[in-house]
Amino acid sequence: MLSLALLIGLLGALRQADARVATVAWRLQTANVALCAKPVMLPGFSVETLEQYAPSKRAEARTELGLGELPQVGAVVPGSTADQAGLRTGDLLLAVDGVPTPRAISGNGGYERTAKVEAALAKALARPPVTLTLASRTISFNGDRGCASAVQLVPGGRLDAVADGQIVQVSGAMYDFIGNDSELAFIIAHELAHNIVVEARRADKAAEQRKAELAADRAAIGMMAQAGYDVEAVVPFMERLRRKNRLSWLDASHPSWTARLAAARAAVAERPPIRNRSLS
C-alpha cells in the first residue's frame, strides 16, 4: 500500500484512500444504527470540488480527476443505495432534487462549496428518495440508514484520530500506520463511539475522560464485530501503537496501557472470532 505522503502527488490514489475510509465508515455506521439516538440517511458517496485542492494542485486535479466547474462524485461505497442506483466515481452533479449545485470556483482553497452540496444532500435525504441530475443522466436513491457523523481522511504527520460530536477525522500518519481494514475499523469505530455512545462521550475532567476512552474501546470492538470486522486484530494493533514514540492519539488523557490492553482483551474475548478472514 502506498504511503499517504506519496499519494499527495497521485491524486487518483488519494481518492482511493478516501474511498477506503468511506467504505469502512459506512459499514460501521449502517451496521450499528441501533446505537444511534437519531439515525440519518447516509448518501453512500463523497463529494469533491476543485477548490478543495490548493491552487498549486488544481491543474493536476483537473487533468487526473476531471474536476472543474461542477461538483463531482469522489467515491461511491459498494453496496450503498447510491451504488445500486448506478452512481459512479467521477459523475458530475448538476442538481439535487432539482436545485442546481453551486458552480462558482473561489480563488482560495476550501470546503465551502463541498459543504453546500453535502448540506443539500442531507436535506434531500431527510425525505427520500433523492433525485440527482448528473451530466449524463438522472438517478434516484433512498440513502442508507446509519449513524450520523462525517468521517474524513485528513493530512497530518502525527498518529492521530479525533471526533467532535459530528465529525471523525483520521490523520494521514495514522492511515499509513494501519495495516488492514480491521485496524482502520477500530480507529474509526473508537472515534464514532465518542460521537454516538453516551458512556464514551468526551469529558472535561481527566478521570471521566479516561473512563470515556475505555468505553469507546469497548464500544468500538462491539461495533467492529457487528459490521463483520476481525476484533482479534485490535490488541496486536494497540500493542504496535504502544511501541511508537509519537502518540498524540494515546496521550495523558487516555488510560494506562496496562488498563487499556486488559480491557480490550476482555472485550475481544466476549466476541466470537471472524472465520472469514476476507473481511479483515
Give a verbal description of the structure.
This protein is α+β, with helices and mostly antiparallel strands and 280 residues long. The chain has two domains: 106 residues, Roll (Pdz3 Domain); 130 residues, 2-Layer Sandwich (Zincin-like), CATH 3.30.2010. Helices cover 42% and strands 15% of the residues. The chain contains ten helices and eleven strands. The strands form four sheets. A four-stranded antiparallel sheet has the order 5-4-6-7. Strands 9-11-10 form a three-stranded mixed sheet. Strand 4 and strand 5 form a beta hairpin. Helix 8 packs parallel to helix 10. The longest helix is centred in the C-terminal third of the chain and has 22 residues. The radius of gyration is 19 Å and the shape is globular. The chain starts with a helix and ends in an 11-residue tail after the last helix. The relative contact order is 0.13.
Which fold name fills CATH's third level, the topology of the largest domain?
Zincin-like
Low-confidence stretches: 1-8, 275-280
How many DSSP H or I helices? 10
Radius of gyration, CA atoms, in whole angstroms: 19 Å
Give the termini distance in whole angstroms: 15 Å
The top-level CATH class of the largest domain is Alpha Beta
Q: Estimate the mean pLDDT confidence.
A: 88
Helix/strand/pairing class, anyone? alpha+beta
Order of helices and strands: HHEEHEHEEHEEEEEEHHHHH
Number of strands: 11
Note the main sheet: 4 strands, antiparallel
| Architecture per CATH nomenclature, i.e. the level-2 architecture of the largest domain | 2-Layer Sandwich
Adjacency order of strands in the biggest sheet: 5-4-6-7
General shape: globular
Relative strand content: 15-25%
Number of domains: 2
Helix content: 40-55%
